[in-house]
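I hope you will forgive my troubling you with a question about protein structure. You will find the record immediately after this paragraph.
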Amino acid sequence: MKAVVWHGTGDIRLDEVPDPKIEEATDAIVRITRSAICGTDLHMVRGTLPGMVEGTILGHEAVGVVEEVGPAVRGFVPGDRVVVPSTVGCGTCSYCRAGYYAQCDTANPNGPSAGTCFFGGPKSTGPVDGLQAEYARVPYAMTGLVRVPDSVSDDQAILLSDIFPTSWFGAKLAEVGRGDTVLVLGAGVVGQFAIASAKRQGAGRVLVVDGIASRLDKAREQNAEPIDFNREDPVDAVKELTGGIGVDRVIEAVGVDAQRPKSGPAAERAGRMAERFEAERRQAAPEANPSGDQWVPGDAPSLAFEWAVEAVAKAGSIGVIGVYPPGFNSFPIGTAMNKNLTVQMGNCNHRRYLPALLDLVVSGTVDPTAFITRHERPTNAVEAYETFDRREDGWLKTVLDVA
């Protein structure tokens, strides 16, 4: 079968690889009909999520059709349409049974203390071969599959594999409540769904910061208030828009590949921190291998943290869903402590939220397809990665039409 395979930092290829097989009684084999490219995938290609194993199939988002099930899988049969949650959980350990699927004691072969296991990730997460392929082996299928109703299209379902649950989780981490003023940092597809999630969890007002015009325009369509960090200082803008107080909640949806402003008043301030940012970048991506403007790690790894802590009101709360690698240790803890802030972060427990979010799609409350901006065939996957990596205007979410 064809699959997108990681061969090294800055080196991914569409390869012919062996078809997956049932290895454990709890496995299922799924024929993939939709996959997608996520910003987290770019971290691994850029080197800002190190520890990848050569030959690992990338991707952690998929919709498909069950082809085969192991003898311990009772709830699914061949022919069922399913969506695959991005993180892997056994469903039976104490963490899974409490809803903390991302901290499953069993799924990660590196042991209970290793933390999250997810498809297509580095050695520390398994590794488990990913979902940008024609077929995939899904471990613990009784937990790792969710049936898709006939009324929900593949395009709608693919956004439920990772993006919508992660954004919903971010709003939960930020403790969004009725009437809150919320700041979303990053207007990529996770940020877009964070806006939608914050509104549905009661936010009275949502501000959003990014530097790409098309993303800010998309946020405005949701009645969010855009702030372009290349035109104004986002912290100053937030303070002005909130009467000098700051926002009640922040959802940080950027992560370690944050970029410095290239113009405007915020650029000068960020420029004074350039030396510190460069040290952080070396720490976060020691094996980075840029090629011209391709696979370049972000040049301000802790900038989103800085803006989050400065823009939130005293006694406010921050939810962090942007990805940071193990060992990254830059955070303005002194300022956060002196403001009595609550900061929560982590990898999404996708299986916990996916069924209820699927109900929102079935009812027509949310249409995830509004945030898909590109469809590509798998044969164009590497080119799509390259264009998405360059942060080109209009590339919000790319879906791979496998079937």
Q: What stands out?
A: The chain is about 30% helix and 20% strand. The longest helix spans residues 350-362. The radius of gyration is 20 Å. The CA atoms of residues 309 and 336 lie 6 Å apart.
